[in-house]
Amino acid sequence: MAGGRRGPAEPRRLMRAGLGLIVLGHGSLVLGAIVHGSVLRHVAGAARAVTPEYAVANVVSVGSGLLSIAVGIVAILVSHNLSRAALHWTLLSVSLLNLLLSTACSAGLALAIALTIHGRGRHLVMGCNSSALPADARAAIVTNDCPFNTTRIYDTALALWIPSMVLVITEAVLSGRCCFVALILRGIGPCARRYGKEQVGAGGS
C-alpha cells in the first residue's frame, strides 16, 4: 500500500505539468494575437516597416503556444498510459522541441524588449510617414499624418511582451520537466533506475 501511494506521484506531476502547459499555451496565443492586432498590424501597415526581430518574436511566441498545448495533451495522455512506449517517445520529442522553441522565443522577446527600450520605441513607429516623427515613441506627433496613435504603441508593446516572456520561460521549464520524465520512463539517465520501473509498474497496476 505504501508503494502504491508513492507510485502515482510522478504521473500526477506529469498531469499537472500537462495542464499547466495547456493553460500557458493558450495564454501565449492570446497575448500573441493581441500584440499583432494592437501593435504590429497598425505599426507595419502597407510599408511593412516593423523590423524583423519584432515580427519573428511574435510569430515564434504563437508557435510556442501551439506546441505547448500539444505537449500538454501528450503529457496528460502519458500520465494515464505509463506503459505505452510510443507515447514516451512522442512526449520526449515534442517536449524537447518545445523546450528549444520556448527558449528561443524568450530570447527573441528579450531582444525585442531591449531594442524597444534602447531605441525608445522609434522602430515601432517607423510605419508612420509623418515628417514630424518624434525621437521618443511616447511623444505626441504634432501632425495627423500618422495612421495610428504613437503615444500608446511603446507602452502597449512592453505591457504585452513582458508577460509573454514570463509565459514562454515557464513553458520552457515545464517542457524540460516533461522531457525529464519521458527519459525516466524510457530508462534513460541517472534517475531512471530509481524511479522508472516503479512508475511504470504503478501505472500498469
From TrEMBL:
Keyword vocabulary terms for this entry: Membrane, Transmembrane, Transmembrane helix
Keyword DNA repair: no
Residue ranges of the TM segments: 56-78, 90-117
Main location: membrane
Localization of this protein: Membrane
GO cellular component, one term: membrane
Membrane topology note: Multi-pass membrane protein
Family note: Belongs to the TMEM54 family.
PANTHER family in the record: KERATINOCYTE-ASSOCIATED PROTEIN 3
Protein name per its UniProtKB record: KCP3 protein
Protein's organism: Brachypteracias leptosomus
Organism lineage string: Eukaryota, Metazoa, Chordata, Craniata, Vertebrata
Gene behind the chain: Krtcap3
